[in-house]
Amino acid sequence: MNKSLKELLHILPELQPGERKIIGIDGLSRSGKTTLSEGLSNCLIEQDIPHQIFHIDDFVVERAKRYGTGHEEWFEYYCIQWDVDWLRQNFFDQLRGAEELRLPLYDRETDTRTNQHVKLPPSCLIFIDGVFLQRQEWRNFFDLMVYVDCQEDVRLERELRTLSKTMEQLESRYHKGEDYYLKTVNPKERADLIIKGDDEE
């Protein structure tokens, strides 16, 4: 078990009967968020702790709705890639009380969204990993926020290797959107815990 995972496990809130706690795993592109959440899930399974993990990238809208919209590319990434208000009302706002969620999950191969039903235990830890989690519309739903910090050169190497994007595409869309997030939201300063994501994913 790596140091980052131990740090996170150490601060997880204890559950009371009938209680759900929502934990965010925030961070910029390719910082190691999903790797952390997958390792965390394995540990919680071993400890028989009820939990559910969601990936915010599973909820992006179809390509035609987020590319070529007439807006700047960074704006498409930050403001349009997800239906922010829909998720606030139909996902985040339902996490504490709903027995079952009906969520449109995105399929990258077919560029379609299909509704799936997710049942939640009455008592569980709910983890959500993804970029921009601390935006104003969502941040108050979390009981605990973790920020995965990663050196820029490490993230860039991962992006070039896994995203099949040119440097120009990364800068005009992803990096500008993330710079806007850093400047307007200050996610590192708002987080309850900052952990390192520099180890190879």
TrEMBL record:
The keyword Cytoplasm does not apply. It comes from the Bacteria. The lineage of its organism: Bacteria, Bacillati, Bacillota, Bacilli, Lactobacillales. This is Kinase. One of its GO terms (molecular function) is kinase activity. Residues 22-196 form the Phosphoribulokinase/uridine kinase domain. SUPFAM superfamilies: P-loop containing nucleoside triphosphate hydrolases (SSF52540). Keywords: Kinase, Transferase. The keyword Glycoprotein does not apply.
